[in-house]
Amino acid sequence: MTNGVTIQYIYRYKNNKEYIKPLVILPTEIKPKVKEPIIEVFFFSENCAHCRTHLDSNFPCSNRNCSILSLRRFVTYLLSSRRTLDICVYFLTCSLIVKQILKLKRRNIYIRVITNKEAQDVEPMQILILRRAGIQIRSRKSTYLMHHKFAVIDNEILITGSANWTLQAFFGNCENLIITNQCELVQAYSLEFEKLWFRFRMNKKAVL
Ligand SMILES: [Zn+2]
Questions:
Q1: Least confident span in 59-68, 106-115, 173-182
Q2: Residue 3 is assigned to a structural domain of this protein
Q3: Distance CA 60, CA 69 (A)
Q4: Where are the alpha helices (DSSP H) in 46-182?
Q5: Where does the PLD phosphodiesterase domain start and stop, copy by copy (predicted)?
Q6: How far does the centroid of ligand 1 lie from the alpha carbon of residue 109, in Å?
Q7: Residue 178, domain member (yes or no)
Q8: What's the pLDDT at 138?
């Protein structure tokens, strides 16, 4: 791959002295073009657990794996939404991300959230905040988990991986995130979202 984003990713691992440069990008600097390939991968681990202590500053530390860098990139993509944001995440408790979602709601982005009921019963506050903001949320009560962790932005960009949208996932767990606009993948996840969105609506007892 020879697109700009991919080059940045490879470059950052081949030359650690320069690795911060391509990652410190302000939200306004990302304007994904439909035909410009996006492929980014982020890994989280216990090596960045202490980075949680400087989360409020929103500035990365000297840790080459600082989670703030990855989170800023992640948030940048979220805020690039222009029309729709479909979120399908098992556990969504990260207030930082919820604040970004609320920003999008204020911009009149059409937002839908699917989550797992049992997970939100444990820590419901952030889901309640989203609901009170008027964001549609669907879930179900079932023996089987809705265990996905993905989001689709404008039906053009996919964010997926192992990570729930929690502080634990970004600051301590071994997790991964992939961000791509590879159209076959985006379409597949969009279709899966629509299936779940419809299925959970039909199961009225299961809707939160
Ligand atoms: Zn850090």
A1: 59-68
A2: no
A3: 6
A4: 67-79, 95-106, 117-122, 125-132, 167-170
A5: 142-169
A6: 31
A7: yes
A8: 94
